[in-house]
Amino acid sequence: MTAAAPVVLLSRNVYASLHDGTRCLVPTDEVDVRLITHPYGGTSGLDPVRFPHVSVCDTNDEEQVLAVLHWLVRRHGARRIVAVHERMLLPAARVRDAHGLPGMDLPTTLLFRDKVAMKRAVAAADAAAVPRFAELRSPADLDAFDWSAGRKVLKSRWGVGAEDVHIVASRAEADAVLASLGTGGDGWEIEEYVEGPMYHCDAVVQDGAVRFAAVSRYLAKPGDFAPGSAAGSMLVDHADPVWRRIRETNARVLRALGLRDGVTHLEVFRTPDDALVLCEVAARPGGGGIDRIVERAYGCNLNEVAYRLQSGVDPRLGDDAATRPARGAWAVLGFYPDDSGASPAPGIPEHRHAALGIAEHTRCDTAGSGPQGVRHCVDYRDRYVVGAADRNALEARLAAVRSAYRSAYGGS
To answer: Which long-range contacts (CB under 8 A, 24 or more apart) does 389-398 make?
Structure first.
């Protein structure tokens, strides 16, 4: 190992997520990694040579996470903390600030985690249009909105994966949601519902400058996930004028929030009158297979870049990262489990994959296992990475994949 001091990797995902096939995405050959993980798949298949130092705790318990982080810094001299899961960003930032460690500090992290603080900062810098929004501390806060002017969105200020998002059409519906949530404190916000499709921009920031940015269109709004439906993303062609506009919006937003180094995932609405309106932005790689289509098109693994940047080593983007053309057209299409209770079929037969342009298939048998079934917007049972020569051919292949999946399984 060449590192003078250990690097802590705070992982909330399964151990396999630290790899692309057999290739480890964490720079264990360049830094001395101390892994913090959980007992629910966090050590399944663990390589003790790459990860000889492992601490296991309940990553749902922030006090446990903080205790282990402080211990590794104080007793083992850790000098960097790597965290790429949304829910691990704040604990990592708190410990960095407590010990004067490099990386994203707490004030910056709060701007990416707290959706109210985020929109305030973006609006103050005039970096992007934002929907009308407000803190939601009590039912009285609903009075400031015109309930005859369309739907509203009630959501957690700290939510992940479109969890805890409620779209309401009336004040009565909003009151009912608040009553069920027991809203209080600083946990919720209300904002105007924005019509139109959604796009996302997945970027790499180094030394305060955007080094790489890929633009995609969501195949369905993340908040619209439901049993038996499908969702995903399609990369936007560089010739489409919205590609440049979204990249420019992304750069302004990240500058307004003060990020120095990291991988980000920005979401915007494109309204019927062609305006771009910020939904939110996260300081971590996008989920649900977005990393897979970005790597297929651009040769850039966003998770690997995030691990390397936070570990303090060269992200290996290449000098042409900002202008690199896409290699073909790519999309990820995921299918949510239905709520019939029937045993799931195996999906599209593998012998059909090549003809349909399917480059990758991922299956999750625990999808839909939450109390209300589908747990979040990337809780797919089957996920397919689909490629083609151009956008028109890709859209035809996506339609064919949907049809083949319905035939094999009965999903939509």
So the answer is: 389/328, 389/329, 390/237, 390/328, 390/329, 391/234, 391/237, 391/329, 393/329, 393/357, 394/234, 394/329, 394/330, 394/331, 394/357, 395/234, 397/356, 397/357, 398/219, 398/234, 398/331, 398/333
Residue 68 to residue 125: CA distance in whole angstroms = 37
The answer as to whether 160 is a domain residue is: yes
Whole-Å CA distances, 185 to 135, 180, 182, 189: 10, 15, 10, 11
**243 and 378 share one domain:** yes
Tell me the H-state helices in 322-388. Answer: 353-356
Domains held by the chain: number? 3
The three state secondary structure string of 130-153 is CCCEEECCCHHHHHHCCCCCCCEE
Rama region for 202: left / alpha / beta (φ>0; ψ in -120 to 50; rest)? beta
Q: 407: which residues sit within 8 A by CB, 6+ positions away? A: none
Domain that residue 25 falls in: 7-103
CATH number for 305: 3.30.470.20
Q: What is the CATH number of the domain that holds 187?
A: 3.30.1490.20
Domain-located, residue 173: yes
**What is the signed CA dihedral for 81, 86, 91, 93, rounded to 10 degrees?**
60
Contact present, 352 and 335 (Cβ < 8 Å): no
Q: Does the pLDDT value for residue 66 go beyond 90? A: yes
pTM listed for this prediction: 0.94
What confidence score (pLDDT) does residue 411 get?
46
Which two tokens mark 57?
A: 């705790």
What pLDDT band is residue 4 in, cutting at 50, 70 and 90? Answer: low
Which residue among 148, 173, 192 closes a domain? 192
Contacts of 257 (CB under 8 A, 6+ apart): 108, 111, 112, 118, 121, 122, 281
Q: At what angle do helices 106-113 and 115-124 cross, to 10 degrees?
A: 100
β partners of residue 5:
none
- pLDDT digit string, tens, across residues 99-119: 999 999 999 999 999 999 999
Q: Which tens digit of pLDDT belongs to each residue from 333-386?
A: 999 998 766 666 789 999 999 999 999 999 998 888 777 788 888 899 999 999
